[in-house]
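Write out this protein's structure.
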Amino acid sequence: MRERMLAGDLYLADDPQIAADSERAMSLSHRVNTLDPNDGATRRELLTELLGAFGEGSEIRPPFRCDLGYRTTIGARVFVNFNLVCLDVAPVTIGDDVLIGPNVQLLTPTHPVEPGPRRDKWEAAQPITIGDNVWLGGGVTVCPGVTIGENTVVGAGSVVTRDLPANVVAVGNPARVLRHIGAEDAQGPEGTDGAAAGGEPA
């Protein structure tokens, strides 16, 4: 069943190998979440062990929850605010320089719509990819199989059910492209575009 899961096929989670992977993730994430918040060095060591990759200069503010950990890769200089839920049954790929606001959910699992297989506990998952320099505002939910293009901003509280292209601002439930990011968005170091994003991610 673990091989079926890794291949993206329907699988049953009642499998000793999957259970062992889940227990490992729960143990490591528990240590991250109960660590002295000022002990950044130990937190980085634990996150590097937990995740498939954890880039240089990246930070995750606990609490942090994941299914497996090793299926999530995070690039360099990423900032993740409090309470990220990352259900990484399928790969979750987060690029460089990404900003993730509080209470964001990255959800790869899927379940059959047909009631019989769902009752029998079959499930699957589809990967999520977050491009470089994306900003996810607070409370954003990203659904299975979604790719978000580089530089794109997703407004707070949005639910992303389909792919978003690069260089756009998207808001709503389901998230829709509001506009393209252009020269009018260029601001100096004293300005931000928080209003367009629908909220502050950090």
